[in-house]
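Worked Example 4.2. Consider the chain below.
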Amino acid sequence: MSYPDDLAYSREHEWVRMDGSRATIGITSFAADELGDIVFVELPEVGASLKQFSAFGVVESVKAVSDLLAPISGEVVEVNEALRDAPELINSDPFGDGWIAVVEVTDASETDALMDAAAYGQETA
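Applying the procedure from the previous section yields the following structure tokens:
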């Protein structure tokens, strides 16, 4: 399985795409495949404060319920409202239309605790 090179990855299978001081976050294709068909996503509230590696929502599949763990700290400025009606977007396009939230990052150096695509690929091999 290959992973986009422009993202940073957590051991908990979330990804971060930095764009200036904002970061889009989601879960990886590996996590989506392991979970199976996703049927519900509990999104964070806009304005919520996320702390790196702390729970900020839930993803529920036909197999399991899993916490979403923030790969980076920040304030939620946008959530993917499309997931409310179509949570399966995470399965079909986890790195695109299946994104979960956008945060205003409080400490960009936290990405140092994340992996690049090659390291994440080895972690999941």
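The two ends are 8 Å apart (CA to CA). The first strand starts at residue 8 and ends at 9. Compare this with Example 4.1 before moving on.
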